[in-house]
Amino acid sequence: MVNVAILGHGTIGSGVYKVINDNNSHVSRRAGDDIKVKYVLDLRDFPGDPVEDILVHDFDTILNDDEVDIVVEAMGGVEPAHTYAMQALLAGKSVCTSNKEVVAKYGYELIQIAKENNCNFFFEASVGGGIPIIRPLMGCITADHIKSISGILNGTTNYILTKMSEEGLAFDDVLKDAQNKGYAERNPEADIEGYDACRKIAILASLAYERQVNFEDIYTEGITKITCEDFWYANQLHSSIKLLGLAKRQNGVVYSMVAPFVVNQDNPLYGVSDVFNAILLDGDMLGEVMFYGKGAGSLPTASAVVSDVISAVKNRGRNIPILWRPEKRELGPVDAFEMPYLVRVSGTDIEKEIKDVFGDVQFLQGQNGETAFVTGPMSGADYEKAASNFEVVNRIRIF
């Protein structure tokens, strides 16, 4: 018998409890041992809920119980989640989490503590919700050097951009709709400003390039400046607009950023719509491979967490090495990214002036007294220098 304690009975924690209990015979068979949820930790009471009989309010009850083998951290936030995960690992209990904030900030530390105490720290659900990406990156795509990672890593922003594209709705209106449907939080800043996607690409880059990538070092730009007019111009290019997290390694230097991009219809990420996520890996031997699915939600995320629980059961008494060293990886300057830009500037009949500054460009049909065009590939620094000659309405990078 393997005893599991779940920290938190919110969206993810309740999903983990449901998956383990509803699919118990299947989960236990896959794990090779009977799995039982012995405790659920939460500050709240849940009268009439099935967890009522196993509910505890003090983490020490779990920490001091030698019969608890695995701790599922589903609390969210950095503290006390980080402290509880660290204490559980120090006690020799494996920890499985979906907490991207903790993993992005303390992942390498918790991996090392798990190694020193012969247990495991697993975090499959911290990126992409129910999409399997961490384990394939660590265990399946190991013969390749990862040239690049690009992904739609946040379902809320993808939903908003999809609705804006398909229905011509304004950003604020779609955000309210997303909040009413439960896709966006009451305070949506982490999603719409790109911070959520930033933490996720930091985790993937740390694993792919085997050293700590600090999310604070990643250039991050959200979607709040995207308008319906931007989609009107993108449609002329047979493209859409997506918030992407990017990481790539070139000549030994790692570059990373989060920003809205114009995505061409030939790109596999173009067709990823609504609340779905997708992650595109490019290996030097494998080439491109994409992982696609539901990036959030109670049961999809819980499914990934429980898969980690099964792995923890299978590997009791031994640590699974994870190549994520604590040494900080310095990122290359974001201005070194060379890419085309979709640019909107105020004014008409200024094509000659634009060509004089930007060189050979592709002009689009303008509207509202604007001139819109697509540049050739150029660095961020070169773009800023050229753009300073005009009144820019908006600019979006082209992927």
List the helices and strands and how they pair.
Layout (H helix, E strand, L loop, with lengths): L1 E6 L3 H12 L1 H8 L3 E7 L13 E2 L2 H5 L4 E6 L7 H10 L3 E4 L2 H17 L4 E2 L11 H7 L5 E7 L2 H13 L3 H10 L8 H4 L2 H14 L2 E2 L6 E2 L7 H9 L2 E12 L2 E12 L11 E8 L3 E8 L3 H17 L10 E4 L9 E2 L1 E6 L4 H8 L3 E3 L5 E5 L3 E2 H8 L4 E7 L1
Parallel strand pairs: 1-2, 1-4, 2-3, 4-5, 5-6, 8-14, 9-11, 11-20
Antiparallel strand pairs: 7-10, 7-12, 10-11, 12-13, 15-19, 16-18, 16-20, 17-18
Helix pairs in contact: 1-12, 2-12, 4-5, 5-10, 7-8
The general outline is elongated
By oligomeric state, this entry counts as single chain
Total number of helical segments?
A: 14
Radius of gyration from the alpha-carbon trace, in angstroms: 23 Å
Largest sheet: 10 strands, mixed
The low-pLDDT segments are none
Question: Percent of residues in helical segments?
Answer: 25-40%
Q: Given the helix and strand composition, which structural class is it? A: alpha/beta
- Determine the strand fraction and express it as a percent band: 25-35%
